[in-house]
């Protein structure tokens, strides 16, 4: 049973602050292990990758070529996956593509009033490494959500890594890679895979950026290679915040809260409503649905340990709370969601109205499901085409306008004690 | 004397690769010290900040109020700074503002062919902390380059921290803060200042993002608070790459190379030209100018240890090298810089033609001088308005279009073993 708060309670602010401050992740200290693996792969390349793969994934392989997934194996995977799943993946791919195409930033080039030319020019990152977890969290939808924006951006090469412990490889993930247009796939994982992507080996050419979710080893490796390559965000456990008026079917809302909770025992589902009756009805519906949910153990633990139901007098009062929570996913299950949207400042994605369950956004809505967690929507955004392009500034002066703005640059160079800066301008103006 | 390479040399590729791989920064291992400072400030707040400030900045202060810079002190600073410098700062501020205003991303809201509504909505980060180094590297231009884009984005609160060792505070920095519209200023620095901004204290309200350059302690602190707050890039030593044809004044190019070199003994200046004669003339001009440059010791060390002159047969051959170097600053001092610009894939900022010395971009060009260093222009961009806004995805289905795309979401939820996801869609479709 989740906690229940009411903004009428005397201790509401204290308890709400505790809810916000609550840590849901136990950080594993794997940094020193990861450092050694990275150093080893940087020095010994393929040989080190093979050894770690033998040790951690129990694969008896002596040649990296065996770890590269052949086109034939992907063909085979396409046959193994049911047509309905392939069709759903293709629908998802197409919708993600259409939505992300609108995110492509435009170059800007202009001349200012005194004749200085300025501009911003966007180019795609040349190569991207995509980490896909093995085992339970090996999701084909995640392959699409990471690879399709990169393709839309114009990334030429997408190298995917996915561990195959004991040789097990999810054919859905290979099918999704094919559908998304991934260029190469290697059956490696963990810190050694991140190292191979960042530093390169004889077999795997280095990439410029590494994206995708992973366990504590992968996250620590990404933090460490950051700088050598770019990385995406380090995602925490998933979360949903549902804001609901009284006029909702409690079963629908309970299903949404549990869809989030089933991800992970440290996922978090929160309901804010102005109806204490609805709150109670949803709590009861959650308990009923937990009886039939296959992942009831995980979802039940998440709901019990991190779930929360917050009753407010008036939904107007929900918005300061919504913006402090800064949820990854925010559902507005209310009569006029548009009016409420204007009050939302911090959220990864907003799902408007009663017919937009968050799971639509996970799969086929078209928007990205890689979103800022752990209140980071206060300062960051979901994955987008912008993560796969970079901007170059352009500046062009001529002799005349350099004469107009140059003296100010000389003044600032001198004020900052950088005479060489001042001189590089002055010398062109015969000053 | 910088190294000289020619692409005619048999060992060119090896030596060029070595140049690329060269480490210019000695990473100081201050991480455990920084961890303790962060933990201490998180727990003890103002009291800890006061103690570290007393210890590291030798300030005998017992009340945080004394570390808050008053409006009167800023008024005083405005009087101390020469009018020519103030005028130059105001010109720079206005030009930075105009350029960055064009970077503001536009909201997007649309309905797709089946009636699903989608969108992207941009909002400003609410509060930003701006770190400004004390001592030598305390540059007013850096205050403008960090604060103005935040103001343009709509950030409501900009809290600046700047250490004042022994009570010394650069009035130019205070003047720049006033001119840029900084909201509050505290005379604190180091990891304790980053902690105060990220976690908040009784005196300093926490911010959502911390930006600005700093020493190894500040960089380590920023890495550690990342997640609790957003951070900008961790900048490395500065660098310039000048591509020049034969038709250049060697003194101008030498001045540009030295303007970069004077920043730091680990800065890097590289010249690529198709004229061996120009190369020699520039090398000689550098030596001549070093005799009169105030910061000759720093600039000379940088040029000797990290400078490079690369002669190519033909400037066409420069571009694969330019894109591998991925310089922070790239000058195209050639007859037709526009034609060359099309071949540039990786660069932080490009300065076109003979009349655009890089120093113009440092101060008054209007583009940002916070740019990706150490080859990170392969995957990242300079500071911009985008660093101070975040995007929320919007999705809205109705009963009809949920019926169209919902079954694909159900199929994928089931394929991924997430029955709760499937159920949250199915329950709305009576499936």
From TrEMBL, chains A, B:
Binding site for Zn(2+): 260, 263, 362, 421
Gene3D superfamilies for the chain: 1.20.5.1300, Nitrogenase molybdenum iron protein domain
Residue ranges crossing the lipid bilayer per the database entry: none
Catalytic activity: L-histidinol + 2 NAD(+) + H2O = L-histidine + 2 NADH + 3 H(+)
Cofactor note: Binds 1 zinc ion per subunit.
Residues the record lists as binding substrate: 238, 260, 263, 329, 362, 416, 421
UniProt protein name: Histidinol dehydrogenase
């Amino acid at each position: 049973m989740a906690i229940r708060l009411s903004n009428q309670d005397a201790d509401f602010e204290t308890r709400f602050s505790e809810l916000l401050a609550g840590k849901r992740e136990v950080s594993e200290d794997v940094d020193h292990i990861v450092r050694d693996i990275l150093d080893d792969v940087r020095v010994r390349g393929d040989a080190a990758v093979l050894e770690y793969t033998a040790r951690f994934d129990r694969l008896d392989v002596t040649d990296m070529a065996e770890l590269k997934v052949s086109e034939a194996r992907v063909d085979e995977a396409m046959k193994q996956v049911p047509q309905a799943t392939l069709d759903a993946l293709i629908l998802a791919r197409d919708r993600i593509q259409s939505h992300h195409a609108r995110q492509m930033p435009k170059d800007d080039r202009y001349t200012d009033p005194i004749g200085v030319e300025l501009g911003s020019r966007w180019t795609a990152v040349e190569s991207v490494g995509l980490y896909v977890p093995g085992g339970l969290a090996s999701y084909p939808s995640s392959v699409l959500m990471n690879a399709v924006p990169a393709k839309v951006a114009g990334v030429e090469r997408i190298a995917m890594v996915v561990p195959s412990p004991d040789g097990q490889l999810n054919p859905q993930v290979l099918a999704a890679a094919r559908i998304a247009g991934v260029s190469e796939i290697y059956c490696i994982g963990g810190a050694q895979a991140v190292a191979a992507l960042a530093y390169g080996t004889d077999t795997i050419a280095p990439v410029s950026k590494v994206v995708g979710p992973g366990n504590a080893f992968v996250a620590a490796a990404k933090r460490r290679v950051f700088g050598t390559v770019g990385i995406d965000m380090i995602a925490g456990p998933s979360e949903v915040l549902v804001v609901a008026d009284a006029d909702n079917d409690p079963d629908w809302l309970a299903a949404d809260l549990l869809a989030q909770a089933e991800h992970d025992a440290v996922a978090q589902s929160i309901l804010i409503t102005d109806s204490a009756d609805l709150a109670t009805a949803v709590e009861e519906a959650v308990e009923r649905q937990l009886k039939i949910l296959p992942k009831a153990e995980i979802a039940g633990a998440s709901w019990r340990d991190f779930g929360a139901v917050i009753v407010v007098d008036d939904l107007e009062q929900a918005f300061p709370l919504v913006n402090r929570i800064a949820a990854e996913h925010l559902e507005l299950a209310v009569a006029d969601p548009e009016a409420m949207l204007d009050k939302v400042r911090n959220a990864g994605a907003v799902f408007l109205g009663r017919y937009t369950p968050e799971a639509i956004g996970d799969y086929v809505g078209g928007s990205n499901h890689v979103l800022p967690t752990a209140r980071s929507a206060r300062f960051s955004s979901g994955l987008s085409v912008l993560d796969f392009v970079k901007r170059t500034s352009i500046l062009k002066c001529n002799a005349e306008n350099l004469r107009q703005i140059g003296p100010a640059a000389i003044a600032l160079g001198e004020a900052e004690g950088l005479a060489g800066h001042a001189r590089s301008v002055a010398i062109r103006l015969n000053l």
